[in-house]
Amino acid sequence: MSLFGKLKNRLLKTSSKLDEGLEAIVKDTTQETAPVSLQDEAVLPIVETPDVQAPELADSQDDVAETVVDQAPEPVIHVTIAPVVEDPEPSKPGLLGRMLGRKASPTAARRVLDDEMLEELEELLISSDMGVETSMRVTAAMAEGRFGKKLSAQEIKELMAREIARIMEPVAKPLPIYQKTPQVVLVVGVNGSGKTTTIGKLASQFRAAGKSVVIAAGDTFRAAAVEQLQVWGERAGVPVLTAPEGSDPASLAFDAMTEAQNIGADLLMIDTAGRLQNRADLMEELSKIVRVIQKKDPSAPHNTLLVLDATTGQNALNQVEVFQKLADVSGLVMTKLDGTAKGGVLVSLADKFGLPIHAIGMGEQIDDLVPFDPEDFAAALMGLEE
Fold first, then answer.
1. How many CB atoms lie within 10 A of CB 185?
2. Chain centroid offset of residue 56 CA
3. How far apart are the C-alpha atoms of 303 and 312, rounded to whole Å?
4. What is the CB neighbour count within 10 angstroms for residue 86?
5. What is the pLDDT of residues 299-351, one digit of tens each?
6. In the chain, pLDDT over 90 holds for what percent of residues?
7. Final residue in a domain of this structure, among 81, 102, 136
8. Of 136, 153, 202, 270, which has the fewest CB atoms closer than 10 Å, so is most exposed?
9. Do 227 and 374 fall within a single domain?
10. Average pLDDT, the chain
11. H-assigned helices in the chain
């Protein structure tokens, strides 16, 4: 299965929710037929003939009419004119549609893009945790030059995907590698966000790319985290530096920098204990780790990765704000996109903070941490085909 195929399968919950919502919105009014009022009737006088025959009806939808013969002294025909449903010419596919070689079906249900529909689209995006401001920005961009036109669900999905990709294009950046050795990568995040697994996957991938990597198990308060890193270290052939349970993590970080310098490692990845952003004591401990690291190298840490759990939804924005103040976050990794219908939060993060998104995690396997591609992500989020 291609990388896009995996991404689409993992974002199935979000894309299904958006797809169902879009179909419901577009069909909201297109399937309704307005009742015929008295004003819709027209009386057409005709010349009396011995045998009055109702005119034949045309086959096309535009000429649909019901003819009734009245037996009045002066024969007339009452023609009840049904509402005419226009069959607009198929609209040209959007940019993404042209890229994917698809055309909108001329028989697909369509609805006029008006204020009411834009509000419904905003609510749909908000429900996928894209945030109010970002949702309004996406729908406003969609409406430019298209307001008042009829669109199908497929066309709306393509337009949304294009606008989402445009927002996320500037933040799609791989983790930078510097000449400075060891390059210190500090990994932070709240409890259960997937920091330990992310470190193991990144270390394995860098090792496979020919880089020498050292891992420091800085979560000295949780034995399971240390054991998990040791398992990943064995898989990747990467040394893992540990300290007794309950030791000072800042001291371990300092010793790990010394060791990484002695062996000439390219990268030192430092794990940290999971912290809740509302625990001031734990956050202060993180600040201490940064201060100690800088005693060894004033330019360190060279990267501070914040690992975010996609299932937390809009709470991820609060986490970014807090960790930015304490640890000067330089980039993001979003995990657990396979377990949520709230994948839109990544769009909101990109729009609000503009921080580089280095990778996204979609499972437990080593190849489930992949570089972030905005076009693939947007297409998969909207349920489009590769």
1. 24
2. 55
3. 24
4. 9
5. 999 999 999 998 888 899 999 998 888 888 999 999 988 766 678 899 999 99
6. 49
7. 81
8. 136
9. yes
10. 79
11. 3-10, 12-30, 95-99, 115-127, 132-143, 153-168, 195-208, 223-236, 249-263, 280-296, 315-327, 345-353, 374-381
Q: Going by DSSP bridges, is the β-strand pair 76-81/65-70 parallel, antiparallel, or unpaired?
A: antiparallel
Whole-angstrom distance, CA of residue 134 vs CA of residue 39: 45
Cβ–Cβ contacts within 10 Å for residue 95, how many?
13
Tell me what the mean pLDDT of segment 212-227 comes to.
90
Q: How far apart are CA 226 and CA 380, in angstroms?
A: 35
What is the distance between the alpha carbons of residues 201 and 207, in angstroms, rounded to a whole number?
10
Q: Which long-range contacts (CB under 8 A, 24 or more apart) does 290-299 make?
A: 290/186, 290/326, 290/327, 290/328, 291/250, 292/250, 292/251, 292/253, 292/254, 293/184, 293/186, 293/253, 293/254, 293/257, 295/254, 296/254, 296/257, 296/258, 297/184, 297/257, 299/180
pLDDT in tens, 60-105: 444 434 443 444 445 444 443 344 444 444 444 443 343 334 444 5
Omega of the bond prior to 301 within 30 degrees of 0, cis? yes
The reply to whether 27 falls in a domain is no
Residue 17 lies in a domain: no
Domain count, the chain: 3
Residue 362: give its domain's CATH number: 3.40.50.300
> Tokens 């929710």 belong to which residue?
17
DSSP state of 175: P
DSSP state of 179: S
Facing residues of 69 across strands? Answer: 77
Question: What residue type is 306 in one-letter code?
Answer: L
Residue range(s) defining the domain that contains residue 51: 38-81
Left (φ > 0), alpha (ψ -120 to 50) or beta: where does 308 sit? beta
